[in-house]
Amino acid sequence: MTSSKKIMIVFILNLCFSIIEFIYGNIFLSGAILADSIHDFGDAIAIGFSAFLEKTASRNEDSKFSLGYKRFSLLGALITSLILLSGSSWVIIENIPKLWNPKFVNYQGMTILSIIAIFVNGLASIATHSGKTKNEEILSLHFLEDILGWIAILILSLILNLKPWYFLDPLLSILISIFILSKATPKFISNLKIFLDGVPDSINYQSLSYDLKQVPHIKSINQLNVWSMDGIDNKIIIHCCLTNYNFKDECKQSIRQICKNYNISSITIEIDTSIEDHKKLCNTN
Length: 285
Fold this sequence. Notes:
Alpha-Beta Plaits, Alpha-lytic protease prodomain-like, single chain, mainly alpha, about 280 residues, zinc ion transmembrane transporter activity
């Protein structure tokens, strides 16, 4: 199953359950469940947008996007990350005052709905967990947040059935949100770095540069650009000078092998006659 189809299934599950949450939130007179239904509805919209971007990312390059559409998947991951970060931050801000002023919680309705929610979000998490794209990866983390949240609600509802410790509701919400922020923040930074054409975290630029300079007949590396379209498809552009131009084919073969060892799939090699010639042709100083 393609990643876009997986995300579309997840979108339908999330949208339907947010409607169920809204209905039962009114039946149980639970403001917490109603608030969560609004949160999940917003998530469903974001997931639907991600599904559209994931489908777009599978298109081949054309006259409008000569490098292809793979970066659209990364854009979806960034948008979902922002929703995850802002949502978790909002939960923390909203629940800190409730630690000193806890409110009554309808634990009976929470117990039933939390069991259903864990099942639904579990299916969504499984559907995206095995995915390879950054979009699927961040969506899987998103559903982990929901599963942990509903497990906390289930445990809380069972405790409240025995003891009226209503302060546990905001406390657990804050702890889960802090955990999600600790996971989502590094992923957001990593995805943003890729989106801005930074060197992928999986590639050691200094080590790669050193290995390339050790290739026989390489006189100098004049330009070395490494980036990724989506965190999976790594690309490189190399400009170099040789001590003997007659060995250019052997040098290119060695360079390609080194790049493949660094999991770089798209390799462009240009042999310069001199550093001055490279600067002149590339308009560098």
